[in-house]
Design a protein that fits this description.
By secondary structure, this protein is α+β, with helices and mostly antiparallel strands. The protein contains ten helices and 21 strands. It has a five-stranded mixed beta sheet, with no helix packed on it. Strands 1-6-4-2 form a four-stranded mixed beta sheet. Helix 8 crosses helix 10. The longest helix has 32 residues. The N and C termini lie far apart (89 Å). It binds dinuclear copper ion. The site of dinuclear copper ion has 8 residues, from loops.
Length: 516
């Protein structure tokens, strides 16, 4: 009897302690970043500090150059000219590439505000069509490395302002530094290639939330975590303490057990009940808010398949990275072509299964512009962890644009896709539609056959016959992948019937042709 009474005497203060501990846990976990957190910041890019400062749009450059090829396309051209120096694995169309037009334009520095300043022959990444100021110290110069880089020439001690009006990699060398390159990309391609910001801020448990409604679900998480830790320590501690204190010792009789104890039983019923009701009420109201998007939201369609995302925006623009506006509710209407996937944006605290032949929804309210992680959180096969990966090894990202940036992205992106020549459009689609997840362009077999070399040749089929790999076979394979399949590959290719415009099909055919 005695020990139990002693225990009852302390349980009420412990109830208070529980609340205090919860409050402390919320405070500690909720607000302070854990100092010891591993923060693998971007391996410092070759880009000099100066290029990080100005926003890529600082110059207000909003116009698309005529027939601006994509960044990938540009790098292919550069690779073709510069041999192995640039763009590994994309120089296959060297023979057929037309000589590039001069794309570097000098502008007077007097009335131009440079978006980037390079003080010396340094590697850099710049937004296409923005003003780049190159200031060479005495004795240091920049000399173009090939035809594609014509115009990228700054003498020692000279300052020049240049505009790169086409995407691409512009190679140079100098008397002091062997080789370098300035990469010119569309401003939105610079955003998607930035290091994700998930690990800046936040704490040991979660990245910093940038969703307006995330605080509620975070509070729930920390409340449950804090309560669990508190009760685990309290109960395990009591078990250990009693085990030692009341262990069997020779010559001592066991004390009789108490029949019951009203105060103790009421306490251990009432306090957990209050906690559970609090958790239920808070969890339920939070859940209702999380699953109910506001009626006025930017709506984006999401199509997932093995192994890529396709985000379709209001004006028809499609991309495999998700671009959204800041301070605006975003609603996702999602479905899958094949198996279960799951949309997961950790900074938004949004994770929602994507199910074939059914629509599911998710919504969030981004509060801070940036580039964030976006992953598939449902095992969907071989390349699940690589969903949306590009040929450069970059994963799909979620870009929250500065005010006005989303509208600019939609306009610029729409303009880009109509202006590309077929093979460059095909190359863009090859990555944007996720073909690269299964088909290589370097001759090696992955989940599917490679795109290299085979065009125009007879290829073996699963039924033992052969087919000439021509325009018709490519088209049929896009629409009905299993109709005439190749041996040794799993029948996992999804159909693209109804999802490619005729112009896009021709683009893919032209691209595969260019790889022969
Ligand atoms: Cu898609 Cu995992």
């Amino acid at each position: 009897m005695k020990p139990i009474i002693r225990y009852t005497g302390t349980i009420a203060p412990q109830g208070v302690t529980a609340m205090v501990a919860l409050a402390v846990a919320l405070y500690v976990f909720g607000s302070s970043p854990v100092a010891a957190q591993a923060t693998p910041q971007a391996t410092p890019k070759a880009t000099p500090q100066a290029t990080e400062q100005p926003a890529p749009r600082a110059d207000g450059s909003n116009t698309m150059p005529p027939a601006a090829p994509s960044a990938e396309a540009g790098s292919a051209a550069a690779g073709a000219d510069a041999g192995s120096a640039a763009a590994a694995g994309s120089g296959a169309d060297a023979g057929s590439a037309a000589p590039p037009k001069p794309t570097i334009v000098e502008v007077p520095c007097d009335n131009a505000t440079p978006a980037y300043t390079f003080n010396g022959p340094v590697d850099g990444e710049v937004a296409t069509d923005s003003v780049v100021k190159l200031a060479m110290p005495a004795g240091v110069d920049v000399i173009p490395d090939n035809q594609n880089s014509a115009g990228l020439e700054v003498k020692a001690g000279q300052t020049k302002c240049l505009k790169f009006s086409n995407d691409g990699i512009y190679l140079f060398h100098s008397s002091t530094k062997q080789h370098g390159a300035i990469t010119s990309r569309q401003w939105y391609d610079i955003l998607v290639n930035k290091q994700v910001e998930d690990l800046k801020g936040g704490n040991f448990w979660m990245p910093k939330a940038v969703n307006l409604t995330a605080d509620d679900s975070d509070l729930m998480y920390y409340a449950v975590l804090g309560l669990s830790i508190f009760f685990f320590v309290a109960i395990a501690g009591a078990v250990v303490y009693f085990t030692i204190k009341y262990r069997h010792r020779p010559g001592r009789k066991p004390e009789p057990s108490a029949a019951h104890n009203d105060a103790l039983e009421i306490t251990w019923t009432v306090i957990p009940t209050i906690i559970c009701v609090f958790l239920f009420y808070y969890g339920w109201t939070t859940y209702v808010r999380v699953v109910t998007p506001p009626t006025k939201a930017v709506e984006i369609n999401v199509l997932a398949w093995r192994w890529n995302w396709q985000f379709t925006h209001g004006n028809g623009v499609q991309d495999s990275d998700l671009h959204v506006p800041v301070n605006t509710p975003v609603r996702l209407v999602m479905t899958s072509k094949d198996v279960l996937h799951s949309f997961y944006a950790p900074v938004m605290r949004v994770k929602q299964d994507i199910i074939p032949r059914r629509y599911t929804y998710a919504w969030f309210f981004p509060t801070k512009p940036g580039t964030y992680r976006l992953t598939c959180a449902e095992y969907c096969g071989t390349n699940h962890s690589q969903m949306g990966i590009t040929n450069d090894g970059r994963r799909a990202v979620l870009v929250v644009h500065e005010p006005g940036g989303y509208e600019r992205y939609l306009a610029d992106k729409a303009a880009q896709s109509t202006k590309l020549p077929p093979d460059l459009l095909g190359k863009l689609l090859y990555e944007k539609k996720g073909c690269n997840a299964c088909h290589t362009i370097d001759g090696t077999a992955r989940v599917g056959p490679t795109f290299q070399h085979d065009f125009g040749t007879m290829v073996p089929l699963s039924d033992g016959t052969q087919v000439k790999m021509d325009e018709n076979y490519i088209r049929e394979s896009l629409m009905y992948p299993q109709a005439r399949s190749r041996p040794g590959f799993p029948p996992s290719m999804p159909s693209f019937e109804g999802q490619l415009k005729p112009q896009e099909i021709e683009g893919i055919i032209a691209y595969i042709k260019s790889l022969k």
